[in-house]
Amino acid sequence: MEKRDDYLTRIIQGSIGVWVTTDQMSIDRFEELVTALKAVLVDAGGADEGTEV
Question: Residues 37, 20: contact at Cβ < 8 Å?
Answer without folding.
Answer: yes
